[in-house]
Amino acid sequence: MAPSPRPAPAPPAPPPVRGAARRRWEPALTGVTGASLAVGAALWWSGFPAAADRVWSAGTVCGLLAALVWVGGALRRGRTGVDLIAVLALGGSLAVHEYVAGAVIALMLATGRWLESAAERRAQRDLHALLAHAPRTARRRDGTAVLTVPLETVAPGDVVVVGPGEVVPVDGRVAGTSAVLDESVLTGEPEPTVRSDGERVRSGAVNGGEVFELTATATSTDSTYAEIVRLAEQAVAARAPVVRLADRYATWFVPVSVALAGAAWWWSADPVRAVAVLVVATPCPLLLAAPVAIVSGLARATGRGVVVRDGAALERLGQARTVVLDKTGTLTAGRPEVVDVATAPGWDPARVLRTAASVDQYSPHVLARALVDESHRRALEISPATRVSEEPGWGVRGEVGGRRIGVGRRRAELELPEWARVVENRALIDGAGVVWVDVDDALVGAVLLKDPLRLDAPRTMRRLRAAGVDRTLLLTGDRPGPARDVAAMLGLDDVRADQSPARKVNAVRKERERAVTVMVGDGVNDAPALAAADVGVAMGATGSSASSEVADVVLTTDRVERLADAMVIAGRSRRIAVQSAAGGMALSLAAMVVAAVGLLPPAAGALLQEFIDVTVILNALRAVRGTERAADPASRDLVRRFRAGHVQLLEAVDATRAAADALSAQDRSRALPAVRGAERALREQLLPHEREEERLAYPVVNRWLGGPETTAPLMRSRTEIERLVNRVSAHLALIDGHGSGEAAALPDEQIPDLRRSLYGLHALLLLHFGTEEEVYSSLDG
Questions:
Q1: 3-state class of 67 per DSSP?
Q2: What is the DSSP string of 254-284?
């Protein structure tokens, strides 16, 4: 009996967000106190001082009531903060009839709180997207019938039917067939996996193939995906509350201010003098400078494609000394890309890739998409195919121009020639995936795919070190081999592979004991670790919405380098906030001493405090200005042109390696023509490109990225490339000296050096192009 369609479960409603009322009335308080000060001033200048005093006193009362609420809330949490001085100053202003001073203090207090609320942590984290992904029902087989039942009723031993595109509802084992699964939501790895009969399947994976059945081995509450949700919720709940920068300074500033005011009153027996001390002691540098600097930093970060949830997160980001990173989708692209095309004798990479893409264009498979995308990138013409069929877990078959084409896993009945055995060994060593291409039941090529390192990842690591990060750690669910390769290429301090979500959380918590820790990830499986870190950073442009929901920082562009931007901005904003607050408090302390000896009445003190406020605010606003330089559009267009030129030169690079391979083959009949073709492509296409690049692009790079030393390694490798090309040309000239045209022979004594030159050229070209791509990407962001 065919399974009935499963109704899509309605997503759970998000929990209510606290603090909404507060966000409404804090701007209103600022408006009321600002209006009272302005209207009072207008009445006073119009000759109505009594009416002005009444308006100012009303504004002071509004500020006092709000300050009492804030102080009460702080006392309930066992803390005292800067608001206590504001209460004393506002109450004292009313008591001694210094209404204008009270109105000024009320406005500064309301403005500071409003600014700070714009940078305040959300009280409750929203796991809505994570929970929405979790299935609510399952399709259980009961004899010949398939019934849709509540998920919680599924017990171990039940047979569950999972349709195409559906989420596996419980942990279990495949029953009776194979299953093609997208487990990226659990492991972060983009490549689908094939599970055979009896193999274990975890809940949360998505069925990427045909309908299959599994035998449940756990209930829904004991399954993998439910555990991920619980881990994220527990990590959020376990976070310690954040103490405001202003409150940390207030621990000593408040007692000093109160003691000095009390001493002035006791010494002079004049309460007005004590109020004057409290007026200039009102910690507006703390209430304003720190929030202004932090909010300015938030605005600056947003302009760089980094959304920071609140000021507390920005503060901690500026203090971070440890960065923990996921691999797939964070340091790597998160999707397989073609890294090489190996071919049988008589075939070239472009032809193999074009043939494979002609049938793969009809498949939604992630590997098929990679082959089609690479063909488009190389501007290859893809032919239409007929009689296309796809077998999940094996690949796609079809006909192109009357020939039978197969793309996917290698079929056991196909003969494995020498070149194909070399490809298998290479893929095993490199940790690459292989897509085989056969034509009329004969292997003609193999496409190697890997999840490539992001171009901006090496520069990101260097900039993080420069920003003060002293420890970098890679945590990944991937295999140890690829994880170690990435860590080695980026110079990371430690790497841990095969990490489950629970082990990631434990690792992050241990790092937090040592230093303020940032966790960067993009998948649902990273969400618990992001929540457990001091600062969770999500790759929002390509990552899961669940990781973005629990993160403190979301990178909205697909560039991990924005993490370094965010840390630089956070560090600078925090330094400016501390500098502004400390400088403002120093000026306030000096004014307090002057007021204590009776030389500064409350009204004049309020105006002086206003001057101090303006000074520290102007200093704090420096945080909104960026220190980085962005390349102009003309420069970006130029480097994009040369990056596009690299794609056009791929055939010359492939020809170099193919010629070296031909020299290594037992049958060298094709070797000499291959060497001649490679040399011609290098001399006529590659070298002119390199010379023009050195003349036009390198000066632009030097101008924007730090001077001639920036491109010195590129110029050195370009010189070596030209030397090796000349060496190959010299070999060909020597061969032609012993014969003519096609009659020229390939002497055995020249083969070793010629082969070394060609293999060296191929490796050097890949390194040279990769380095240029990395440098150009810094300008093209």
A1: helix
A2: HHHHHHHHHHHHHHH--HHHHHHHHHHHS-H
Over range 24-49, report the average pLDDT.
83
H-run or E-run covering 347: none
Cα(297)–Cα(295) distance, integer angstroms = 5
pLDDT-wise least confident of 3-17, 56-70, 135-149, 624-638: 3-17
Bridge partners, residue 546, by sequence: none
3-state secondary structure of 127: coil
At residue 713, the 3 state secondary structure works out as: helix
The phi and psi torsions of 73 (rounded to 5 degrees) equal -65, -40
Judged by DSSP in three states, 339 sits in: strand
- Which residue reads 């480097």 in tokens? 639
Tokens matching residue 566? 């965010």
Average pLDDT on 290-306 reads 74
Could you say which of 2.40.110.20, 1.10.4030.10, 3.20.20.140, 2.70.150.10 is the CATH number of the domain covering 128-237? 2.70.150.10
Q: If you count DSSP H runs as helices and E runs as strands, how many of each does the chain have, helices first?
A: 28, 22
Nearest-CA neighbor of 316 among 251, 252, 239? 239
Cβ-contact 679, 754 below 8 angstroms:
no
pLDDT of residue 540: 65
Instruction: Give the total residue count for the chain.
Output: 781
Question: What SS3 class is residue 453?
Answer: strand
CA nearest 297: which of 277, 278, 320, 317?
A: 317
**Beta-carbon contacts of residue 773 (< 8 Å; ≥ 6 apart):** 455, 643, 646
Written as six digits, the tokens of 359 are 């049938």
Active-site residue among 326, 360, 438, 526? 326
Cα(first)–Cα(last) distance of the chain, in Å?
Answer: 55
CATH 3.40.50.1000: does it fit domain 306-333+453-556? yes
Burial class, 389, CB count within 10 angstroms (exposed 0-12 / middle 13-18 / buried 19+): exposed
Q: What is the pLDDT of residues 322-333, one digit of tens each?
A: 999 998 888 888
- Domains of the chain, by residue range, sit at 20-121+242-298+572-624, 128-237, 306-333+453-556, 337-450, 633-779
Residue 637 falls in the annotated catalytic set: no
d(CA 660, CA 760): 10
510 contacts: CB under 8 Å, gap ≥ 6: none
CATH number of the structural domain 337-450: 3.40.1110.10
Return the percentage of the chain with pLDDT > 70, whole number.
81
Per DSSP, 450 falls in state E
pLDDT in tens, 351-381: 999 999 999 988 888 888 899 989 988 888 8
Please give the model's pTM, rounded to 2 decimal places: 0.66
- Which DSSP symbol is given to 285? I
Q: What is the spatial distance between Cα 85 and Cα 90, in angstroms, rounded to a whole number?
A: 8
Band (248; pLDDT cuts 50, 70, 90) = low
Cα–Cα nearest to 537, from 737, 215, 300, 308: 308
